[in-house]
């Protein structure tokens, strides 16, 4: 009798998941599913959080996932264990923003889910660098028999060099990351709280730091205050829970920002692969280069 291969993986809660064979039917939180896809793993289904639509996944978060081939089970606290187990997954990959809490699912749902199937949780919070988060996903992917192509890492190295060269020396363009929140206000990102923004700062990009005040991740201000920052580049949150930019066309302060700045789409819940990160950095580099002309 052939000996079965035992699969195991220790997640970011320090919890060891095991199986008698390598998992092949993966259910994943949308961010994790899109990241695994870039490593060559097609999840059987994905789910979202309470910020997401109950019937359609947020296109800003799905990366290059082939959505016609990957089921979407719904989002957040409306999800129950029966729905999550409907595709008979043999592994669930979730994310956490610290404390080991499964993001996107009610605590009781997550607890009962683990009674039926191994759940691996990857910490994507501000305590980790983007590289560290990427390394954890890469390690998980390798345990599942897949790996991101080396060309993706080469492309990432190249665009990191390009961006750091563009902002070296003379004062670079001012960059503001924000999440539109209606006609009256916007949330300005605190760069140190977002792993992808910390990468930009490390490369030398001049990211505006909002004034100290309430809000750990964001500083909420009126549009006039945002316009007064006079950014040359704006990283605009394009998730479904942010106000779409086309709805701000009649807002004079946003019009002033958009008229003077290069606007780059930004997903604060990034796909944590070299491929996706290189694509984002390339867009930023293009905007920085154009702003400097």
TrEMBL record:
Q: Which residues form the Fe/B12 periplasmic-binding domain?
A: 36-258
Q: Which domain of life is it from?
A: Bacteria
Looking up InterPro entries in the UniProt record yields: ABC_transptr_periplasmic_BD (IPR002491), Bact_iron-sidero_bind (IPR051313)
Keywords attached to this entry = Signal, Transport
Q: Where in the cell is it found?
A: Cell envelope
Q: What is its main location?
A: other
| Stored PANTHER family | FERRIC ENTEROBACTIN-BINDING PERIPLASMIC PROTEIN FEPB, IRON III DICITRATE-BINDING PERIPLASMIC PROTEIN
Q: Which protein family is it in?
A: Belongs to the bacterial solute-binding protein 8 family.
Q: What name does the UniProt record give this protein?
A: ABC transporter substrate-binding protein
Q: Which organism is it from?
A: Streptomyces sanglieri
């Amino acid at each position: 009798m052939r000996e079965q291969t035992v699969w195991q993986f220790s997640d970011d809660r320090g919890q060891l998941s095991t199986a008698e064979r390598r998992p092949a039917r993966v259910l994943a939180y949308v961010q994790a599913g899109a990241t695994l896809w870039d490593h060559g793993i097609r999840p059987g289904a994905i789910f979202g959080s309470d910020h997401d639509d109950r019937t359609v996944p947020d296109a800003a978060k799905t990366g290059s996932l082939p959505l016609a081939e990957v089921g979407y089970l719904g989002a957040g606290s409306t999800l129950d264990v029966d729905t999550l187990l409907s595709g008979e997954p043999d592994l669930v990959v979730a994310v956490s923003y610290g404390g080991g809490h499964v993001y996107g699912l009610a605590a009781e749902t997550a607890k009962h889910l683990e009674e039926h199937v191994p759940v691996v949780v990857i910490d994507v919070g501000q305590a980790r660098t983007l590289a560290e988060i990427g390394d954890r996903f890469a390690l998980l992917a390798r345990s599942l028999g897949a790996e991101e192509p080396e060309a993706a890492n080469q492309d990432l190295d190249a665009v990191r060099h390009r961006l750091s060269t563009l902002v070296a020396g003379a004062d670079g363009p001012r960059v503001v990351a924000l999440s539109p929140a209606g006609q009256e206000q916007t949330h300005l990102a605190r760069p140190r709280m977002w792993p992808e923004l910390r990468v930009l700062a490390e490369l030398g990009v001049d990211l505006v730091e909002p004034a100290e005040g309430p809000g750990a991740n964001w500083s909420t201000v009126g549009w006039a205050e945002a316009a007064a920052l006079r950014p040359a580049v704006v990283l605009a949150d394009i998730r479904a829970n942010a106000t779409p930019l086309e709805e701000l066309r009649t807002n004079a302060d946003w019009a002033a920002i958009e008229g003077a700045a290069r606007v780059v789409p930004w997903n604060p819940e990034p796909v944590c692969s070299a491929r996706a990160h290189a694509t984002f950095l390339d867009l930023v580099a293009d905007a920085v280069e154009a702003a400097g002309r």
